[in-house]
Amino acid sequence: MVVVDIDPQCNATDSFGLNRDELLADGHFTVADAYLGKRGLSNILIDFGERFKGRLFVVPGHRGLSTVPQRLESELHVSISKEEAGDLDADELRSEHRHRLKATIEELIGRVDFILIDTPPDLGFLMTSALIAADYFIIPVFPSGYDLKGLETLMKTAEKVQTRLNPKLRLLGVVLGNLDSTARLDTDIQAMLRAKFGEERVFRTMISRSVKHREAPVYGKTIFEHAPGQAASNQFADLAGEIISRLAAPGRTVKRETHA
Question: What's this model's pTM, rounded to 2 decimal places?
Answer without folding.
Answer: 0.90
